Amino acid sequence: MKQLLLVFVGGGFGSVLRYLIGKYLNSAENGIPYGTFAANILGSLLIGVILGLAAKNNSLSQSQTLLLATGFCGGFTTFSTFAYENHVFLKSGDFMSFAVYTIASFVIGFLAVFAGIYFVK
User: Fold this and answer.
1) How many helices (H) and strands (E) are present in the chain, helices listed first?
2) Which DSSP letter does residue 60 get?
3) C-alpha span between 72 and 119 (Å, rounded)
4) Per-residue model confidence as pLDDT tens digits over 74-106
């Protein structure tokens, strides 16, 4: 039960922060979801740091890892929103935005995870 509560609390905080970032960074003017992109990249970096610390000499407890990686990062990152926004790009025929947004999110997201792990070594 404690594990569920940790994931729940972390997820709540992550979701609220994701909402705020999206509210202020997503652009209705040009349709580019900068907030979603920022949340995914920052979340990828953060989960890399968290899991890197957890693996490094057991620097984080299992409870801390659940709260931060599973809970907070799970609530903060926005893959479902990312997928929907790509659907909108495709439906509107904006193939260039679809390609750039998708490739940049994957490549930079993976690099951010690797950077997070590297930073804690």
Assistant:
1) 6, 0
2) S
3) 20
4) 999 988 889 889 999 999 999 999 999 999 999
